[in-house]
């Protein structure tokens, strides 16, 4: 997740729709669109080829392109999603992937549900899945079988109850790998087994405090090892990352990120990392 990001898909936001039903704080439509454009421009300036999918009218959460699918070494696996207003998104994202030349190699079926925010790669062959109110054991089992064909080891960890089923809490809400040996973490929510795995791998934890956790300070996108993008307004975690040798870049995410609870990792579906 920190290897050089060569190609990435983002989706322009819908400026119309029932934001309240999607649990957003109502954004300014013009700022929402312009902030997303500026975010995509930042990724380009940092060396990524950015594929831009068109907005889906009325589906306001679709701007968070990470959640409906997982891209592996062979292609994309499309999910089924528990949030009612997001259920059309996986197939729509699958179509965008195929237009970008990324094949769809599998789909979750039956009772399996998942959100992409519950997935982190610890290395090329180790995927950690957070079992949460959005991602269940049936999804873990199906993905373990699908990814076995690529030699990937799937490890699952249980997420805390926290705010309950009505509150979105993803694995990536409290951890963002930013180099092979460095990760941003909000420790109060991190499972013990995950913290132990980080320590065993020699991964240094850069902790986020309570205040900046609430402003998406833990949601950090690595475009190369120690070259990262985060939402503006989190000066303490930015300074901490720089103290660990990171080059930091920020964008104004007041509308596109903070009001919908989706930071830079949520806005991106990586298609190719070295």
What would your notes on this structure say?
This protein is α/β, with parallel strands linked by helices and 274 residues long. It has 6 helices and 15 strands. The chain has a 3-stranded mixed beta sheet, covered by helices on one side. A 3-stranded mixed beta sheet has the order 3-4-5, covered by helices on one side. Strand 7, helix 3 and strand 8 form a beta-alpha-beta unit.
Strand order of the largest sheet: 2-1-15
- Assign the structural class, choosing from mainly alpha, mainly beta, alpha/beta, alpha+beta, or little secondary structure: alpha/beta
- Quaternary state reads single chain
N-to-C order of helices and strands: EHEEEHEEEHEEEHEHEEHEE
**Beta strands, count:** 15
Helix content: 10-25%
Give start-end ranges of low-pLDDT stretches.
Answer: none
**Can you summarize the main beta sheet?**
3 strands, mixed
Percentage of β-strand residues: 25-35%
Shape: globular
Provide keyphrases for this structure.
274 residues, alpha/beta, three-stranded mixed beta sheet, 6 helices, globular
In short:
The chain has 274 residues and is an alpha/beta fold. It is 23% helix and 26% strand. It has helices at 29-45, 89-99, 137-148, 192-200, 210-213, 235-243, and strands at residues 5-11, 49-53, 69-71, 76-78, 104-107, 119-123, 126-131, 153-158, 175-179, 182-185, 204-207, 221-224, 227-231, 247-251, 269-273.
